[in-house]
Amino acid sequence: MTAAWIRRLALVSGVLTVVGLSTPAALADTSHARGTQYYVDCAGGHDSASGLGAGQAWKTLAKVNSVVLQPGSRITFKRGTTCDGTFAPKGSGTAGRPITTGTYGWGAKPKIDAHGALAAVLLHNVEGWEVRDLDVSNQGPTPGDNDVRIGVFLQLEDFGVAHHLVVSGVDVHDVNGCDCRNPHTPDVSGAIVVKAGGTAKPSGFDDVVIENNTLRHVDRQGIATSSDWEKRAQYPDGRGTTYVPITRLRIAHNYGEDIGGDAVGVYNATNAVVEYNTFRGWAERAPSYTAALSAFNADGTVFRYNEVSYGHGSGPLPSAAYMTEHANLDTVFEHNLSRENQGGMLVVCADAGRPTDRTTVRYNISQNDFSNGYYPDFNGGTDPVGVITVICLETGRVQVYGNTIYAPNAERLLMNYTTDPLEFTDNIFVGRAGGSAFSDAYGTYDHNLYRNVTTVPAGDAHAVVADPKFTAPGLAADRQDATGYRLRGGSPALSAGAANPGVRDYFGYPVPPVRPNIGAYAGPAVR
User: Fold this and answer.
1) How much is the pLDDT for 315?
2) Does residue 476 contact residue 365 with C-beta atoms inside 8 Å?
3) What is the pTM of this model?
């Protein structure tokens, strides 16, 4: 086919626009298999163009935002360019025919810079969307107390349930929003925020995937979910008139650093999965307590295979790696690595009237997390935190088993300020050389190993007080590099544990139903 015929075909079809001689592969790329493909070049495009080819690209986000997109449509941005303003498209797709973003050309990911607006990418009252492969920022003037700013915002208002929303491969950076977060404010600032609002029609999300994104220098949250439909028996004073949880939420394979406050907050969700994420450097600027991974008013949340490190905290307020707060049921933290966090590894807190129950913490490794800071108590004073801190009033059943806690710099290993009978089985606790505090008058203990603690719980009839004989503790640089917490031959932790549920350990070894090792390593002795 000659070049002339190719040009003629483009004019006749009204879909393809080809400049010069093109190959069949290039022609195929100009029309998305499931719908129309549009092109955006914020450096050299023209809003009067058709938008249907690289040579007919639109120039502004305003033009893109004016078009009602159909299922299967694809918006491709030219690499190496920057679009100023907010990408706020119209139209919905479906799970089978989503509307997607993509790129064309060469160079860096296309940028969207909102310059301090509400959001750089705003999906408002739409569904069936996949936002992919963009570079997003939203840096504005110093924010006031209510200046909410977000990188990617999935927002519903009196919509009902929105299905299938994906944010993948997006680099979010330089978002300087207010210190706004759940549950203290109805709105949230952060890199990626999912919010169901409104007052007339109960609204929520189903099938939300946030994966393979990078977050750098963002305030306050990294990834957060929020809802104005949170009232239920577990949370009777919640906003709204009923409870609409997010369902099928997965937050995975994201990387974050220099996060002002919390890394991931799961609010109003059922059976959410947060896995394989890495957050290094969080709680950098928040003026209140923080947690890297936390749940609130959510059921069945699973946090697994994550790494969280270098949580700094602000002043006397702590920054714990993991936290289960008010009104949570069946929260699980498993197979995670926490290290160098100033507020310790775990905080459990549930206020009166917002009970939390059935929290499980198993087969995690805590390296050099230390107890720094204080939580307000109920008498107007403050209570110091430990590597593990249980506070507030209605924490319910908490099972902590098969964990390895190596804290040679921690003044306090465990502080329980409740009367709840916490359950600690098959854990290794290693404190500082002079002894680390272990304060719990109500918990039940069995088959734990203690090293350098001031007080071994009197109720632990099978306590092991000895060196666990790790192969090389204190050297884990990431979640995969924790082999130093395996056990050498002759370790008193080998085959010294109690019977427990038959799951896998931190390293992937099956945990035997009887006589397992104590700690997060269930494998054979290492020579």
Assistant:
1) 62
2) yes
3) 0.92
